């Protein structure tokens, strides 16, 4: 099991919605890791809708790099530890 530690980037404010939740699972059907990334709602918008994306990666290293890059683009809302499980 791989562990990724993410911390909020307070030094720069981006126009992107921050990441609230990341969940990674191994999907046997497609033979790849699937990361569900949920973004936090914007309290300043009149019409809020929950946003999310799915990332697919063939191995742990690829998934780790994609999650780290997503956290650089859209900062996380709080300190977060993401676990990438072993293949079953």
CATH architecture verdict: Roll
When the domains are counted, the total is: 1
Low-confidence stretches: none
CATH class: Alpha Beta
Largest sheet properties: 3 strands, antiparallel
Determine the fraction of residues in helical runs and give it as a percent range.
Answer: 10-25%
**Strand tally:** 5
Q: For the largest sheet, list the strands in their spatial order.
A: 2-3-4
The oligomeric state is single chain
Mean pLDDT: 88
Q: What name does the CATH topology carry? A: Nuclear Transport Factor 2, Chain: A
- State which percent range the strand residues make up: 35-45%
Shape: globular
Describe the structure.
With 88 residues, the protein is α+β, with helices and mostly antiparallel strands. It has one domain (2-84): Nuclear Transport Factor 2, Chain: A (Roll). It is 16% helix and 38% strand. The chain is built from 1 helix and 5 strands, in the order ββββαβ. The strands form 2 sheets. Strands 2-3-4 form a 3-stranded antiparallel beta sheet, covered by helices on one side. Strands 1-5 form a two-stranded antiparallel ribbon. Strand 2 (19-27) and strand 3 form a beta hairpin. The N and C termini lie close together (11 Å).
